Amino acid sequence: MTLTRHGATTAPDGQPCTGPLAPHVEGFAAQLSRKGYAQTTVRAKCNVLADLSRWLERRRLTLAALDEDRLTQFLATLRHGEKKWRGDSATGQQLLEYLRGSDEIAAAAQRIDRTPAACLTGDFEEFLHSERGLSRSTLISYLPIVRRFLDERFGREALHLELLRPQDLHGFILRELLRISRSHGKRVITALRSFLRFLLQRGAIQTDLARTLPGVASWRLSHLPKSLPPKQVEQLLACCDRSTPTGKRDYAILLLLARLGLRGGEVLAMTLEDLDWERGEIVVRGKGQRLERLPLPEDVGAALACYLCEVRPACATRRVFIRMKAPLQGLAGPVAVCCIVRRALQRAGLNPEFKGAHLLRHSLATNLLHRGASLGEIGQLLRHQQPTTTQIYAKVDIAALRGIALAWPGGAS
């Protein structure tokens, strides 16, 4: 097997690529190259394909027989043999995706969970969607909570819902609160309350157990927003190594967070079409699928232009910020932005209590307030839909609070 155009080479044992996968070597190699894999990696992955193709040929299996189970059998022979590459499993999955994308093999078989807990959770999902009209994101947050509760209480056995007692619910809630924050604890209560009312409505329970659920002590405006002073924000930005491709990308991301107060998810969702260079604006894909325009500050624009022109490799995705290593695709979830912030804090020698992407958003609002901006102006920049959302920042304006504070009883006159 010699494919100089795409970097594939003969198999490690010197045998040619034969078998049902042989016609697909070039296409697979080309796709890997488009995703940014180095030629040595492309060759290694194509050698795995060649081994798999010969394995299928020896067993007189056609391409249509290839699926996850066959791949597992093939990988088992590698583990017990002499040849083994640590990327074999990932390469096999990539190959299956490539073949399915070309309609060469059947789609993956759907593994349907038929357990009683899964069936009841499915009914609850349909109820939330069709009767209550809840969004997909709400369903995604509610359903795992309900499934964990059912699995803990009943396992894979029959669901004797009539045996549910308040202590079952309270015990589950207390265990959940030991591992999550108070705000997430409120979500657990809300999800269970909705589920219990669903059970009551369909007659699965006779008592309104939702009334027995406790509340979570997490009062609104009960805490101060975590923030950095302006000097520390600049220190964080200055510690980015802009001589490296990753440093240039991270610097542009941090500027968007620090200068415009974008949320981590908004940075990830930004596409090349969202950058309006002629008007000096960017389109922000905010909460609730809202599209909003913000002015593009000079330093942010310069950092974005540097990243796009000098660093960002050509790839299929239209996302602005992508991985710097293969496969070349958008960053994986808001946690990726949080990791960029944490690494920047570590480089700058800063150790605030809160280290997420929202730290720079809070810092921007707090610093603007100290410089005389009104809460209305801050809310407009942060794109808050309700004025009450911005009220949390009033607590950091100590000078204004002193003016309205009542005298301490018995204090000096």
Automatic annotation (TrEMBL):
<dbReference type="GO" id="GO:0015074">
    <property type="term" value="P:DNA integration"/>
</dbReference>
<keyword id="KW-0238">DNA-binding</keyword>
<feature type="domain" description="Tyr recombinase">
    <location>
        <begin position="223"/>
        <end position="406"/>
    </location>
</feature>
<dbReference type="InterPro" id="IPR050090">
    <property type="entry name" value="Tyrosine_recombinase_XerCD"/>
</dbReference>
<dbReference type="GO" id="GO:0006310">
    <property type="term" value="P:DNA recombination"/>
</dbReference>
<keyword id="KW-0229">DNA integration</keyword>
<dbReference type="Pfam" id="PF02899">
    <property type="entry name" value="Phage_int_SAM_1"/>
</dbReference>
<dbReference type="Pfam" id="PF00589">
    <property type="entry name" value="Phage_integrase"/>
</dbReference>
<dbReference type="InterPro" id="IPR004107">
    <property type="entry name" value="Integrase_SAM-like_N"/>
</dbReference>
<dbReference type="InterPro" id="IPR002104">
    <property type="entry name" value="Integrase_catalytic"/>
</dbReference>
<dbReference type="InterPro" id="IPR010998">
    <property type="entry name" value="Integrase_recombinase_N"/>
</dbReference>
<feature type="domain" description="Core-binding (CB)">
    <location>
        <begin position="118"/>
        <end position="200"/>
    </location>
</feature>
<dbReference type="InterPro" id="IPR013762">
    <property type="entry name" value="Integrase-like_cat_sf"/>
</dbReference>
<protein>
    <submittedName>
        <fullName>Tyrosine recombinase XerC</fullName>
    </submittedName>
</protein>
<keyword id="KW-0233">DNA recombination</keyword>
<dbReference type="InterPro" id="IPR044068">
    <property type="entry name" value="CB"/>
</dbReference>
<dbReference type="InterPro" id="IPR011010">
    <property type="entry name" value="DNA_brk_join_enz"/>
</dbReference>
<dbReference type="GO" id="GO:0003677">
    <property type="term" value="F:DNA binding"/>
</dbReference>
